[in-house]
Each structure stands twice: as C-alpha cells, then as structure tokens.
Amino acid sequence: MLTQKIVKVGIIGGGLMGRELLVLAGRWDALIEHPVRPVITAIADTSDSAREFFTKAGVSESYSDYKQLLESKNVDVVYIAVPHNLHQEIYLAAINAGKDFLAEKPFGIDLNAAQSISDALVGKKNFVRVSSEFPFYPGAQAALKEVKSGRLGEIVEVRSGLLHSSDIDPLKLINWKRQKKFCGEIGVLGDLGMHAAHIPLRLGFRPTSVFAILDDIITHRPDAKGESIVCDTFDNAVLALRAKSSESIREFPMFWEMKRIAPGEINTFYFTATGLTGGVRFSTRNPAVYQTFTLKDGKQIWSEIQPGYNTNWPVVTGHIFEFGFLDALLQMWASFLAEREGSLGDRFACASVAEVLDSHKVFAAALNSHQSRGQVLIA
Ligand SMILES: NC(=O)c1ccc[n+]([C@@H]2O[C@H](COP(=O)([O-])OP(=O)(O)OC[C@H]3O[C@@H](n4cnc5c(N)ncnc54)[C@H](O)[C@@H]3O)[C@@H](O)[C@H]2O)c1
C-alpha cells in the first residue's frame, strides 16, 4: 500500500470551476495508488458568498485578496480559475511567489499576455500546466492512440471542436464571458478554443495558416436591472486551417469549431481524424463509444467500440460504468499532480504552457483573418 503525500491546494477564484475542484477532491479515493492526496486548504475570491461555499465545507483559510493566499505556507499548489483579464496578473504573482499551479485556459487574455506569462517561467522552477479535461475521456484517449498507431496512413483531414448553447437565450443576463474587456478580444476562441486545439497540438498537427469566420450573434444583453448592455464578444468561431505533421510533407485541412450558440448542443466536444487507410472519431454527444475506420476487401467500414471506464489513471470504478465530464476533471487532476510528483510515467499529461501558447498564436491569427477576411499565415 502506497503512502500518499498530502498536497495542500489553494484555489483562487471560487466560481464554477473552483467549486468543481473542491468537489472532486472528495472523490480522490476513486484513484488507485495515486502518489498524492490533494487537500483544499485555502480559498481566495473577492466575493464573500463564493468563499462561503468553501468555508462551509471546512476550508480553513479564506482570503478576499489572492496575494494573501499566495503568501500562505499552507498552500503547495494553486488552482487559478478567474476571468481572463486577471490571468496575467495572478499567474505572474503565483510565479513570483514560487507556487506551482494549474492555470485555466486561455492562459492570458491574448497572445501578448500568454507570451509574458510564458517568458516569466523561463529559468523558474514552478510546475505549471493548463486545464483542458476533454482529452481524458476514454474515447478521446483511444482516438489519440489510434492516430499514433499510424493506421490512418496519409492524413486526409482533422476536425475538432466544442459546441454548446449556453448563450442561445438572448435574454440571458450579461456576464464577464460576454464582454471583451474581461473575456478578451478573441472572445469564444479564448473561452473554448483550447478544447478544440489540445488533441491536434498534442498529436503534432501544426497549423500553418488560418481562414476564420468569427460571429458576434447577440450584440446586447440585459443586466440584472434590465438595462441593455453591449455584448461585444464573438459567440462562435469556425477556423479552416492548413496543418502539417512530421509524417508528411503535404499540408492537410484541419477544422476547429468553437461555439457558445450551437443550437441542439449542450456541451459537445469532438475529434475526428481520417486518413487514406484508417480513421477515428469521438464525440461526448455519445461518450460511451468511439469509431474507427478501415478498408477491407474494397469495403469502407466504420466500426463502433465501447472503451468502457478505461482511464488514464487507474480507478476503483467498475469498467462497465459510464464516464462523464466530472470523471474527466478527476483524471486531469490525477495527471497534473502525478506529473508534478514525477510519477506520471507515459500516461497522458495535461496541456503544457508551450501548447497553450501555440493555441494563442492560432487565435491571434484567426482574429487577424476575420478582420482582413483573408488567409493568415501562422508564425
Ligand atoms: N476547463 C473548463 O472546462 C472550463 C470551464 C469553464 C470555465 N473555465 C475557465 O475557468 C476560468 C474561470 O471561469 P469560471 O467559469 O469558473 O468563472 P466564474 O465567473 O464562475 O468564477 C470566477 C470567480 O473568480 C472570482 N474573482 C473575480 N475577481 C477575482 C479576484 N481579483 N481575485 C479572486 N477571485 C476573483 C469571481 O468572484 C468568481 O467567483 C476562466 O479562465 C474560464 O475560461 C474552464
């Protein structure tokens, strides 16, 4: 029996995502022989009611100023889940305080911010990774392995995306995610883009140019008083990219799609790659299965496989049970904390700073493409 090392975790930003971390720490026993056990020791949030959720659950340190949390000796690792306009300031402060952290995407409000955070890490010992949980679904892991197997042959095309409809109601109240000054000029690209980018970038599919259509569908939303407020972020983005892989000199088409208004979709992450001799597709719309493509006796065959609860980090959960979003978050945290401990082995690692920086280069070029209505090369 492995003795688990306690890792004291502080959360900056106790909103939607911060709360999820508190809850998943309570499910840690699902993981078999994980080297560490996270204990949530501190919360920092400017909102009293956000902090109250944590203190009621027994989190002992509560701060309205995140700097106090970063000074706490009772915090080894920080999870930073705040609006995008605060990423640069708080990530830089965490780096300077010598803390390891799991950052939220998009890792800075724009490319310049992401670059400055990345630059600040040069020569530093902080262990930093970026949150992106969808690749931890068993079907997504299987899709990654299928592409890596080489069975696809020459890549024909790659598609990935995240589609939801959280903003389909024009009367939904305005929030920070719908305003450039908080969310960023890249809008939905910063909000959902890393979900589309993560698997392609991990597979080494390097975007070389982009043609983007960015769409601001709902331009005004009410605030709590019923006043109409400008809602100036892009809701939807469709990116047509040229991409290269190390296996081929040819550039192949790659499509990334990120939508906050995708009628009929609640929260669909998907990845599809097809080649001359094989293919694979996975979607959280039907998360219990993934499909592979083969050619046999001149016939084109898509086969459906149920991966079961077959996870990156082993678990006590029965392999016949269904896997969901919260399980993906648990797997992401298991990966982050195991890698920090040097115990991840060859298991799938969380998104790296280099990967998120590469995603930002695509998003900056996409914004440029949208404005110029033309194709833009990606440096
Ligand atoms: N990985 C994912 O699937 C996923 C999903 C949703 C959001 N996110 C990302 O997580 C981050 C947070 O998003 P969210 O949906 O949790 O937002 P949220 O609005 O629900 O929560 C943000 C919290 O930050 C707090 N906050 C604001 N200013 C602060 C400050 N100066 N110091 C401390 N706390 C402060 C707010 O009071 C709020 O409680 C964003 O980067 C977002 O893109 C990731």
UniProtKB/TrEMBL annotation:
Q: What are the residue boundaries of the GFO/IDH/MocA-like oxidoreductase domain, all occurrences included? A: 142-241
Gene Ontology molecular-function annotations: nucleotide binding; oxidoreductase activity
Q: Which residues form the Gfo/Idh/MocA-like oxidoreductase N-terminal domain?
A: 7-130
Q: Which SUPFAM superfamilies match?
A: Glyceraldehyde-3-phosphate dehydrogenase-like, C-terminal domain (SSF55347), NAD(P)-binding Rossmann-fold domains (SSF51735)
Q: Which key words tag this protein in UniProt? A: Oxidoreductase
InterPro entries xrefs: Gfo/Idh/MocA-like_OxRdtase_N (IPR000683), Gfo/Idh/MocA_oxidrdct_glycsds (IPR050463), GFO_IDH_MocA-like_dom (IPR055170), NAD(P)-bd_dom_sf (IPR036291)
Going by the entry's taxonomy, the superkingdom of the source organism is recorded as: Bacteria
Could you tell me which PANTHER family the record lists for this protein? BCDNA.GH03377 (PTHR43818)
Name the chain's protein: Putative dehydrogenase
- Tell me which species this is from: Candidatus Nanopelagicus abundans
Q: What is the lineage of its organism?
A: Bacteria, Bacillati, Actinomycetota, Actinomycetes, Candidatus Nanopelagicales
